[in-house]
Automatic annotation (TrEMBL):
A family per Pfam: FAD_binding_5
Protein name: Xanthine dehydrogenase family protein subunit M
All residue ranges annotated as the FAD-binding PCMH-type domain in the record: 1-170
Keyword Flavoprotein annotated: yes
InterPro entries reported for this sequence: CO_DH_flav_C, CO_DH_flav_C_dom_sf, Diverse_Substr_Oxidored, FAD-bd_PCMH, FAD-bd_PCMH-like_sf, FAD-bd_PCMH_sub1, FAD-bd_PCMH_sub2, Mopterin_DH_FAD-bd
Gene3D superfamilies tied to this protein: 3.30.465.10, CO dehydrogenase flavoprotein, C-terminal domain (3.30.390.50), Uridine Diphospho-n-acetylenolpyruvylglucosamine Reductase, domain 2 (3.30.43.10)
Domain of life: Bacteria
Key word Oxidoreductase present: yes
Length: 264
């Protein structure tokens, strides 16, 4: 690990000021990605800005027909929140399956979404529920936020403050986990909101994406049978020692069927 300065601001404004003043500064929330990178000398920031003491980034609340989750909400908090369980049970269930106990008590929803790891869970919920990303500068639609592997619409120095999830009529999530790392090999988050259906696939490709053919089929017939014969194209999907692109393409359909069954 290289030397760096450590800052722990008490407000969002102070954090933004620190990050804006130094392009090589890096924010940290739960540290599930940045800390390993620092330990392996894969990242060399001049300073690390600890966001954990900022009250404006915390909290989970229901506002009208949407659920607002602060960027610093830990996976355990999302999984056990009465508000999340009542409004979007599939999101609570998702959070409860991330990593292990240690990860769920340190990792945050904002850190996961901002990092946009292809094998992360939350991006599929954000995209599947058509959520809105709220930053210190603007509001970003889910369809515009994720831009490829580890890439988002966030600008340098811009901080994710909260995520607004529309409350769906139905939603379900299913995934195939790597038995060692517990990262997603292929997953599907499916939601019906205001009569519209969205199907978001994570883990299978270099980034989360919508499966529009399945969306069309489910809009006409909300049933696992509606997607049973839809084949995901393997071109461009991830392929490694854990599973080929063809295997992951097969898993997309399997996980979609399970997600619909879980949604009811």
């Amino acid at each position: 690990m290289y030397d760096f300065e450590y800052h722990k601001p008490g407000s969002l404004a102070d954090a933004v000021k620190l990050l804006s003043a130094d392009p090589d500064a890096r924010p940290i929330s739960g540290g599930q990605t940045l800390l390993p990178a620092l330990k392996h000398r894969l990242n060399k920031p001049t300073s690390v800005v600890d966001l954990s003491g900022i009250a404006e980034l915390k909290g989970i609340k229901k506002e009208g027909n949407k659920l607002v989750i602060g960027a610093l909400a830990k996976h355990f908090e999302v999984a056990t929140s009465p508000e999340v369980k009542a409004a979007i049970p599939a999101l609570a269930q998702m959070a409860g399956t991330i990593g292990d106990t240690q990860v769920r008590n340190r990792g945050t929803i904002g850190g996961s979404v901002a990092n946009n790891d292809p094998a992360a869970d939350y991006p599929s919920a954000v995209l599947g529920l058509n959520a809105t990303i709220v930053t210190d500068k603007r509001r970003i639609a889910a369809d515009d936020f994720f831009q490829g592997m580890f890439t988002t619409a966030l600008e340098p120095g811009e901080l994710l403050v909260a995520i607004e999830f529309p409350i769906p009529e139905k939603a379900g999530y299913a995934k195939m986990r790597n038995p060692a790392s517990r990262y997603v090999m292929a997953g599907a988050f499916i939601a019906k909101t205001g009569g519209a259906v969205r199907v978001a696939i994570n883990g299978a490709g270099p980034g989360v994406f919508r499966q529009t053919e399945m969306e069309t089929a489910l809009a006409a017939n909300w049933s696992p049978d509606a997607v049973a014969n839809i084949k995901q194209d393997a071109d461009g999907l991830n392929s490694d020692i854990h599973g080929s692109a063809e295997y992951r393409a097969h898993l997309v359909t399997v996980m979609a069927k399970r997600a619909i069954a879980a949604a009811g």
